[in-house]
Amino acid sequence: MKRTRLAIVAALALMSMAAGVRTAPEIGAPAPTFTLPDTRAVEHSLEQYRGKWVVLEWTNYGCPYVNKHYRSGNIPGQQQKWRDRDVVWLAIVSSAPGEQGYYPGPAMDAQSERMGSNATAVLLDPAGTVGRMYDARTTPHMFVIDPQGTLVYMGGIDNVPTPRESDLARATQLVDVALEEATSGRPITTPTSRPYGCNVKYR
User: Fold this and answer.
1) What is the distance between the alpha carbons of residues 108 and 105, in angstroms, rounded to a whole number?
2) Looking at per-residue confidence, does 22 or 13 come out higher?
3) Rounded distance, CA 131 to CA 4, Å?
4) Which of 6, 103, 114, 182 is geometrically suited to a Cys-Cys bond with 107, CB 3.0 to 4.6 A?
5) What pTM was computed for the model?
């Protein structure tokens, strides 16, 4: 009977994989490992940053929600603040070629400069492999990983889901708060939240 149940579970898992069902990462579990190239073809692996706090930011410079946070300086400011505290901030672009937000390396660098990005690196995921691994749904969609490689936050950059810069004044910056709490050894008040923004432009 036990063997039958295990066989059923295995079959269901294979069916889910075949159907392209996403398995979402979980708070308190190891963050999915990956290796991606940056805009200059330098590879970055999550494993190489073990021992550091890491932020993953799914981004798309053509998205008005992303534009809100970059035009206002909100995300660039947080990127610089936390990089100054030795946090690794990786922006990931999972837009497929021909879709909004996709640029080859040099053009992506030009867009990052125009937007004022202070990310450690912008990583390119045109096949969407890592985006699907993390079940990244929107731009921005944020993840925080602790020095042991454990996922401790995932969700929105803040809690006011609009594209209006004027709404930043009343928003709680959830990633910033999570990092302040976690890096000082306190429990994260809000470890998960609803991400908002444009759909990730997968292939």
Assistant:
1) 5
2) 22
3) 34
4) 103
5) 0.89
